[in-house]
């Protein structure tokens, strides 16, 4: 089972407009896609769509939170919900069909009641039987970066291996807790390691994470840097570097990183090793980019694309 932790969910609204998005102009969307979003729920939806056994753990509030809970139910995604005060945030993206390049507006959300955060952490600790737990996305306002490490420690105590996809102070705090896997994009990796080249950044990230896990008496980790059209660089636990690519492009990249992680965890949870899990991750990310809306993909298309993936030693 995969536990997808969603500490700061969002209603994600994606507008597809006929022409280029222009500042100060009126736009009449030709299509609207609304999803139960935020990175954690995108991972949950992608993994569930691919046939994974998924349980989402989400911190929700208000009318928006109830909409998200209903949406998860409609998509048959099991969810453990912790309710807090205020209102769950909404995020908006708009793009034209020719470029697909989004203009994005992400609310930070409201500060979370400390008691609700403690209940959320305890709910994570209560999830049993998960082979993997994913800690994805931002933390809600009012929760210190150390909250990421807390989630990792609680999930690990429950017997799960832990994958992290965050950025900034939350990512730095997460790395201090020595997760089993870290997946970041090239920009986040560059900020963290100072390395411009994604392959070098993946190696640097793996080295620092290996040092932390060794000091804690844990086995070797894996590190992945996704690089858009250049695919992804995986440093496996044995230190070998693998470069995975698919020669297919989609116009809607929003959520492709989350779908990548969802696909990867489905394969890993099924017993695949890291290099063999990389094609499904790439297939899921590419299938996501072919449809408007984050974490929405055709599972058959994802597996067809996975069969086209090229993975080689780098």
Automatic annotation (TrEMBL):
Domain Carbohydrate kinase PfkB per the UniProt entry, residue ranges: 23-296
GO cellular-component term (any): cytosol
InterPro entries: PfkB_dom, Ribo/fructo_kinase, Ribokinase-like, Tagatose/fructose_Pkinase
Annotated transmembrane regions: none
Domain of life: Bacteria
Region (Disordered): 91-110
Pfam families: PfkB
Listed GO MF terms: ATP binding; phosphofructokinase activity
Keyword set, alphabetical order: ATP-binding, Kinase, Nucleotide-binding, Transferase
Annotated family: Belongs to the carbohydrate kinase PfkB family.
Protein name, UniProt field: PfkB domain protein
